[in-house]
């Protein structure tokens, strides 16, 4: 049932070659690939204003603040900051490094001697463990900075934190509430900044999801992905991916809980993918390749949890909904899952559930993102 995409397939001779030469890999790079023909997608400056963020004009203003615009260093803030070719190359590299690590290879250490600060204003198991483990396996050292270590924007201004940490570290990852915080970190940092999650989007998660879909279906392009639940930061990142890679994306959510209208409109205007926003999950899932769910009340919304349970009745992903999706549909969830609320225990544990391979791929996708932004 599992297929591997041509652009993500890992040939045995390729792995053998990587392993055979691994003794000389430390501090070096994986070969660049030229197997893709990219399609440039226009940037959407308006997206940077959504969900408590202001227009930062990051691409134009950053050179006057930190010089990154004139170097090879990059940030990973939104998926649609990159074109199709670049996104697919990152996914390709994720698959290669994953295969290398799975083979037991431990001498490929491109991050040897490098350090990363991990800023958390929101706690997380997967984000911390996947970033810290991945960076360590590739030779680097990650430093955890929790909510009480920095108190970003309260104890110290975000721009000052960025200016200090970039003098200690080679890369900064941040998991924050306000999207403006990640924009400010990137604006004032001279080293790459990776968006580990904001209230607006979660690009690392969707890169891991894309890798998982390619592994199980064989391709991302042309698939039908149906998200059932709240039109939250996960939905925004799926939409931004749909502005770059062509596929059919449907968000089925209750009235009043739709994703950001400006984001939806700009992605539709890009004309890359088919985008649907609906209030009917039963109709939405028919013919889906992937049915995707997330918690109904995200971090910071827990006081709304009981109200949301009432509003979201009928949007639970259960066995009956998966049957409507059809026999080829997989189930995905970014976790943590509230079993019995947005999804039943039976769906999470079903053979068509790829929730845990999806969780594992957070590390592999993020490794590739970090390799890319650091210039490897």
From TrEMBL:
It catalyses: carbamoyl phosphate + L-ornithine = L-citrulline + phosphate + H(+). It comes from the Eukaryota. SUPFAM superfamilies: Aspartate/ornithine carbamoyltransferase. Residues 74-215 form the Aspartate/ornithine carbamoyltransferase carbamoyl-P binding domain. It comes from Dipteronia sinensis. PANTHER family: ORNITHINE CARBAMOYLTRANSFERASE, MITOCHONDRIAL, ORNITHINE TRANSCARBAMYLASE, MITOCHONDRIAL. It holds the Pfam family OTCace. The keyword Transit peptide applies. Belongs to the aspartate/ornithine carbamoyltransferase superfamily. OTCase family. Keywords: Amino-acid biosynthesis, Arginine biosynthesis, Chloroplast, Plastid, Transferase, Transit peptide. It is an enzyme of class 2 (transferase). Its EC number is 2.1.3.3. This is ornithine carbamoyltransferase. GO terms for cellular component: chloroplast. GO terms for biological process: citrulline biosynthetic process; L-arginine biosynthetic process via ornithine. It is found in: Plastid, Chloroplast. Residues 221-372 form the Aspartate/ornithine carbamoyltransferase Asp/Orn-binding domain. GO terms for molecular function: amino acid binding; ornithine carbamoyltransferase activity. InterPro entries: Asp/Orn_carbamoyltranf_P-bd, Asp/Orn_carbamoylTrfase, Asp/Orn_carbamoylTrfase_sf, Asp_carbamoyltransf_Asp/Orn-bd, Orn/put_carbamltrans, OTCase_ArgI.
């Amino acid at each position: 049932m599992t297929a591997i995409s041509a652009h993500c397939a890992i040939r045995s001779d390729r792995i053998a070659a990587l392993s055979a030469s691994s003794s000389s890999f430390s501090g070096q790079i994986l070969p660049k690939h030229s197997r893709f023909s990219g399609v440039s997608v226009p940037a959407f400056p308006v997206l940077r204003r959504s969900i408590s963020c202001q227009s930062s004009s990051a691409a134009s203003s950053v050179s006057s603040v930190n010089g990154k615009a004139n170097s090879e260093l990059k940030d990973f803030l939104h998926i649609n900051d990159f074109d199709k070719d670049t996104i697919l190359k990152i996914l390709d590299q994720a698959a290669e490094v994953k295969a290398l690590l799975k083979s037991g290879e431990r001498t490929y250490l491109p991050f040897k001697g490098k350090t990363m600060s991990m800023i958390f204003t929101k706690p997380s198991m997967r984000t911390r463990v996947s970033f810290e483990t991945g960076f360590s396996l590739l030779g680097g050292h990650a430093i955890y900075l929790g909510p009480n270590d920095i108190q970003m924007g309260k104890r110290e201004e975000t721009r000052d934190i960025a200016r200090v940490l970039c003098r200690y570290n080679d890369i900064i990852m941040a998991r924050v509430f306000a999207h403006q915080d990640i924009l400010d970190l990137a604006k004032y940092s001279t080293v790459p900044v990776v968006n580990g999650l904001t209230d607006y989007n979660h690009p690392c998660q969707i890169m891991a999801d894309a890798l998982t879909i390619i592994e199980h279906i064989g391709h991302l392009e042309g698939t039908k992905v149906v998200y059932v639940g709240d039109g939250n930061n996960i939905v925004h990142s799926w939409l931004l991916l749909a502005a770059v890679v062509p596929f059919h994306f449907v968000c089925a959510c209750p009235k009043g809980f739709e994703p950001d209208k400006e984001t939806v409109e700009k992605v539709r205007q890009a004309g890359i993918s088919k985008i649907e926003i609906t209030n009917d999950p039963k109709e939405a899932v028919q013919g889906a390749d992937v049915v995707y769910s997330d918690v109904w009340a995200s971090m910071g919304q827990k006081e709304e949890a009981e109200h949301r349970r009432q509003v979201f009745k009928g949007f639970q992903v259960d066995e009956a909904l998966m049957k409507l999706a059809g026999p080829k549909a997989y189930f995905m969830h970014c976790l943590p899952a509230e079993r019995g609320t947005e999804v039943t225990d039976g769906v999470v544990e079903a053979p068509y559930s790829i929730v845990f391979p999806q969780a594992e791929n957070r590390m592999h996708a993020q490794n590739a993102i970090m390799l890319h932004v650091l210039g490897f």
